[in-house]
Design a protein that fits this description.
Strand order of the largest sheet of chain A: 7-4-6-5-9-8
Keywords (chains A, B): Magnesium, Metal-binding, Molybdenum, Molybdenum cofactor biosynthesis, Transferase
GO molecular function (chains A, B): metal ion binding; molybdopterin molybdotransferase activity
CATH superfamily of the largest domain in chain A: MoaB/Mog-like domain
Strand content of chain A: 25-35%
CATH topology of the largest domain in chain A: Molybdenum Cofactor Biosythetic Enzyme, Chain A
Structural class of chain A: alpha/beta
Number of strands of chain A: 26
Radius of gyration of chain A: 32 Å
Protein name (chains A, B): Molybdopterin molybdenumtransferase
Pathway (chains A, B): Cofactor biosynthesis; molybdopterin biosynthesis
Distance between the termini of chain A: 49 Å
Low-confidence stretches of chain A: 1-11
Function (chains A, B): Catalyzes the insertion of molybdate into adenylated molybdopterin with the concomitant release of AMP.
CATH architecture of the largest domain in chain A: 3-Layer(aba) Sandwich
Largest interface: A-B, 123 and 123 residues
Oligomer: homodimer
Shape of chain A: elongated
Chain lengths: 424, 424
């Protein structure tokens, strides 16, 4: 209790802009090691190879219809008064190839998706034809002229041979898997999931299983962060909480920095007697990158580096912790997964209600998006104090409110950062 | 090859509207069995219990600042000329409770997040105070009047006791986990993942490992569908392809309908000789629900039921297969996970480019959303033929183009269905 006013400045805190802090961190976010996995296991992993088409797609002239493969020239004289009859010389089911050729006066029965035979240059829909037996042959009757190329998907219609289909860093989902399977990529090279250690600090924290005790609260941030790490593409490791003891905290965090790809802590970064992470990042144990960001919530958000590994010391306030992860940790994880767009997608929306708080720092307000009549509205959460956790679950974006001396009125254009995996 | 025009109507196909088909299916989509899992394992699972707050949150008066807990009344005479000195009788770190009471003329040192002691009704920021030792006591000096309640988060500020926080069917992500942890829910009751069997049909299909063969294509739909099943919350089981043999297909699909919660097939539903699923759903093996939908792509989309289990026979065209899953199978999976909003979220956007195709059926066009200056634009994919797979990966919405005889011009308001897990 010997604290004096001098202590308030003990961190020598100089606020950085969010983008400046992101730039500092980006020096450490590099694509990580890769591994090969089966295509079936690749959902939500991140591609570590460039996918080029080994062949055009489709790679043969593909029938778009059930019907008859014909020479368009043979149909030039057709009309409902003048049926042209062609000899049906073969049939081509899907997956089979005819060894015959469509010559003048002939046609082949063909199925949707089958390879159009040599000589044919159009497919007539089955519904447009008649069939008959004539002098021992099966014949198809056509009543209408057809253009060359009709109902045939040409070679390379979707993809040319050698075309780059996907770049490294791409998240693999249904559409990507469809492409990989179509081109025979049954073993996919993906980035390994970065292993992220998570600590909470503070002896006020109960584990989630413990009964309540006076004055204490349950540790919720580590579980929340683990979920955020998973959603961002990493593998979370929840480690035992760091108590309010600097030597112990140092030992635990230093060890984690050796063993994992990055370390997140929550809590212990505010100005105060027991703000242990603040003390830690000012020690000679690590090199501090920043310990104040010009933002709300989470201005105390801190980062440091040791042997090229990042320590993210996030605020212990749930709202600030959530935002700090999305702005700083998620991009790092995305960078190790090869992403060239590691930051949250930014859109411009219309503020649906007045936002009355004013601040010298940029605010990242939890909110919900809604599109009505072509206008994208951003609806701020009712309570967005940094300490509030209950509104995180209802948010699908962060509304960016620049420093303001007056309220931001409804109807203002605001930037919104889209939260991934959100309940849109 | 004895097919006649009569065969074209052999399915007696009567197109249903999408919403009508969804209504028919909804009779079979009921919340499924539940299981208990650890909170740490609950990311992206679906809650099967109502979560009510067992206590208010915060459940004690919480200090929002590092500073001193005081009686506001004691500060009424403060000014920079007239410093009021209070005896500091205790300190309250986070997680601890003082057994003393703040009485007139006294104060307590308190940390952010700590429980405000009895008798105190405001917290003064550390930065606003001075400290001194006076006659053996530690004293804090205040220069400014403070209002009652200042820097104290009241009990129940976020949540009242008994308040319903989350309903069954909610997808558990970071925000939900934060709530569950805060209220000590370390074992979560979730819906079991529905087990979905996936078959492809057609002897034209190579497995993804096989070398190319003339006329054949690789099976990509089953892998794509497996990814869609995962994203929707189910557990996919890729079964051996069903060849073009009705008896074999019947046996395989019937067995799968017994063993799994639902069965998806892709392919074999168009009009044609080898369209085996068409034959299957018209057999007495299952009861057909519908075999034509008034939509593009995927008008041949079919569904049937056997012993209360659904068979979704989707188109073999990748684009149509993808859309059929999102419109019909995903809602079923979501219903078994307790969701009361099982369908894709619908927004209204502005069409960014002319859409030139016309059709008697509603089109679900793959597209991309973009928000510029507060306007939400929907950009249709360049090629969206039902057979095309390459544009699925770049889509984050389906643009709904109603039946039209003329092109839909740029600037039109269009409904868009938001694809989950999309690359926004």
């Amino acid at each position: 209790m010997k604290q004096t006013n001098d202590d308030f400045d003990k961190f020598h805190r100089k606020p950085l802009q969010v983008s400046h802090a992101q730039k500092l961190l980006a020096a450490y976010g590099k694509p990580g090691p890769v591994e090969q996995i089966a295509l079936e296991e690749s959902h939500n992993r991140y591609l570590a190879e460039e996918i080029k088409a080994p062949h055009p797609f489709p790679r043969f002239r593909r029938s778009g219809m059930d019907g008859y493969a014909v020479r368009a020239e043979d149909t030039s004289g057709c009309s409902s008064e003048h049926v042209v009859w062609l000899d049906v010389i073969d049939e081509v089911p899907c997956g089979f190839v005819s060894d015959k050729e469509v010559t003048p006066g002939t046609a082949m029965r063909i199925m949707t998706g089958a390879q159009v035979p040599e000589g044919a240059n159009a497919v007539v829909m089955l519904e447009m034809t008649e069939q008959r037996e004539y002098e021992g042959s099966i014949q198809v009757g056509l009543k209408r002229k057809i253009e060359t190329g009709k109902n045939i998907t040409p070679i390379g219609f979707e993809v040319d041979e050698g075309e780059v289909l996907m770049l490294p860093g791409r998240r693999i989902q249904a559409g990507e898997i469809s492409v990989l399977a179509s081109f025979g990529v049954h073993q996919v090279t993906v980035y390994q999931k970065p292993r992220i250690a998570i600590f909470s600090t503070g002896s006020e924290l109960l584990t989630v299983e413990e009964p309540l005790q006076p004055g204490k609260i349950r540790n919720s941030n580590t579980y929340m962060l683990a979920s955020q790490v998973r959603e961002a593409g990493g593998e979370p490791y929840i480690l035992e909480a760091v108590m309010d003891d600097l030597a112990l905290a140092k030992a635990k965090v230093e060890r984690a920095l050796q063993e994992y790809d990055a370390v997140i802590t929550s809590g212990g970064v505010s100005v105060g007697d027991y703000d242990i992470m603040g003390d830690f990042v000012r020690s000679d144990s690590v090199d501090m990158l920043y310990n104040k960001i010009a933002m709300r919530p989470g201005s105390v958000t801190t980062a440091a580096v040791k042997d090229g590994k990042l320590l993210f010391a996030l605020s212990g306030n749930p709202g600030a912790c959530f935002v700090g992860f999305e702005l700083f940790v998620r991009p790092f994880i995305q960078q190790t997964l090869g992403s060239d767009k590691p930051y949250l997608t930014e859109w411009t929306a219309v503020l649906a209600q007045d936002y009355t708080k004013v601040n010298a720092f940029t605010r990242f307000v939890r909110g919900r998006l809604d599109a009505r009549d072509g206008i994208l509205y951003a609806v701020p959460a009712k309570v967005d104090e940094s300490s509030v956790m209950v509104t995180i679950k209802d948010s699908d974006c962060l509304i960016v409110i620049p420093p303001a001396k007056e309220k931001t009125p409804a109807g203002s254009k605001v930037k919104v950062l889209m939260l991934k995996g959100s309940p849109l």
